[in-house]
Amino acid sequence: MLADPRYVPPPVRQDGAEGTLAWLRARVSRFSTGEAHARRRRELVALLDGLAPTRLRREARALTRERDGAWRGVPTAVLGAALGVGDTRAVPVAAAGYLSGEETPQADAAVAELLELAGLPVITLLLQGHAATEALVENALRHARPGDDVDALLHETLRGDPPLRATRRLDTRTGEEVTIDLVAANRDPAVFAAPDRFDTSRFDPGRFDPGGGPARHLTFGHGVRPCPAPAHAIALAGGVLEGVLG
Ligand code: HEM
Asked: What highest taxon heads this organism's lineage (predicted)?
């Protein structure tokens, strides 16, 4: 389904008042299809190409240490600074409604604040990245054991305890909406031996793909519209973990 263009993201409403969360959702790559999706995605990829993951990682580590391990907000602050946004306080509130579509006065106000600071492509990256990256750090910290390799810990967390657990598609032939269960997909016994065991030794650090790691799990999506920023997400989360775990 993720690789089949007949399955598209369920459409979002297109008639939101200018500057609101609904207006923003009608204009981003994530909820677009066809040519609009391709054009919007290209803009984001061009922005991401200008951000070096090694630098994001170093800065996330430094800021986490500077804050004595109080890491919440660090990934978004570091990503924001790299994109020229010095104040990312509005991001969590706007991000809370971004994927769900839950429209609240608070989310609309946060979107309006962000629009004062940056253009749509930059805001999209901040909103897309925020919740999933924080959840990745949170889940990885829950599984961390002394001596763990940070990258192996992150990749096994992405597989076994993913920060994003499902995504939805509309079948354009039948009009039916389907939920794709990423947790179940990542536990396919034909792909991962003993899939219910959390085992950081599955991932050999020597074999990491610098573009985002062993891609056999589906946590970064697949096919037509996968996450364009797995290396950035891993860099931000990895820097935070290094800052917290020593
Ligand atoms: C652990 C952290 C992250 C995870 C697990 C994750 C996962 C995903 C997934 C699964 C999708 C595709 C959704 C679908 O096909 O329905 C996606 C899309 C996207 N992600 Fe990420 N992501 C993460 C972090 C980030 C970060 C840090 C950024 C920005 C720097 C980002 C930017 C995007 C964008 C822009 C899209 C939309 C792509 C498109 O519309 O073609 N993500 N992400």
From this structure: Bacteria
Q: Whose CA is nearest to atom 19 of ligand 1?
A: 227
The encoded tokens of residue 212 equal: 């985002």
Amino acid at 184: A
Specify the residue with its C-alpha closest to ligand 1, atom 41: 225
Q: What is the pLDDT along the chain (246 residues), one digit of tens a residue?
A: 999 999 999 999 999 999 999 999 999 999 999 999 999 999 999 999 999 999 999 999 999 999 999 999 999 999 999 999 999 999 999 999 999 999 999 999 999 999 999 999 999 999 999 999 999 999 999 999 999 999 999 999 999 999 999 999 999 999 999 999 999 999 999 889 899 999 998 876 555 444 444 558 999 999 999 999 999 999 999 999 999 998
* Ligand 1 center–CA 128 separation, angstroms: 6
> Which residue has the CA at smallest separation from atom 40 of ligand 1?
30
Tokens in use for 163? 């920060």
Helix (H, G, I), strand (E, B) or coil at 86: coil
Cα 167 to Cα 99: distance, rounded to the nearest angstrom? 10
Rounded-to-integer distance, Cα 7 and Cα 167, Å: 12
Q: Residue 41 CA: which ligand 1 atom is closest?
A: 41
Alpha helix segments (H runs only) across 50-119: 53-66, 74-82, 91-98, 105-117
Mutate which of 1, 151, 227, 241 for ligand 1 pocket (most atoms within 8 A of beta carbon):
227
Q: Which of 41, 78, 127, 128 to mutate to test the pocket of ligand 1 (most atoms within 8 A of CB)?
A: 128
Task: Write down the architecture of domain 7-245 according to CATH.
Answer: Orthogonal Bundle (1.10)
